Known about the structure:
Blueprint (H helix, E strand, L loop, with lengths): L7 E3 L1 H9 L6 H14 L2 E4 H11 L5 H15 L1 E4 L13 H8 L5 H13 L5 E3 L3 H4 L6 E3 L1 H6 L1
Parallel strand pairs: 1-2, 1-4, 2-3, 4-5
Helix pairs in contact: 1-2, 1-3, 5-6
Amino acid sequence: MVKEADIVIIDSNIFIIDLRYQHDKNFIINHKFLKIIHSKGCGVTSLINLLEIIGILSFNLNERQIAEFYKYFPQKYNIDIIPSLSPDSRLPELEIRRLIDIMTKRASFGDALIIASAHTYIPQASHFVTWDKKHFKKKLNMKVLTPVEFLKI
C-alpha cells in the first residue's frame, strides 16, 4: 500500500464514475479506491481536473449547486486541489511550449493540461490514478495506475 508520505494524483474520470455512474462495471472498485484515499488523506487533483468535473456535471446542476459543489468537493473526498481552490485565483500558468511538447506525444489538449499541471504543481507525487492509463503512461514522471492496480500495491 502507499506510504504515508506518498501523494496520489486522481484523474477526473475516477470522480465522475463515483458521482454519476453507480451502475458502471468499475463503480465498486472505484469507490473502494476513493475510500482508501479518503482515509489516508494522500489524494490530490488539479484545479484543471476539478473544472473538468464541474463542466461535465454542469448540464445537471444549477448555479447554486455548482458553487456548493466547488466548495464541498475537496471535503467530500478528503483531497487537496492544486494549485489553489480559491474561486478568485487565476487558472494555473502553463507554458504553451510545454503543452505542445506533451501533445506531440499523442495527448489531447485536456490531458496535456492535466499532465503539465501535474509536472508544474505536483512534481512530488508518487502515483497518478486513472481509468485512462494509456493516455498518461510515459507522459508523467510517476507511476500511472488504474484503481485496480493501485489497490494491489
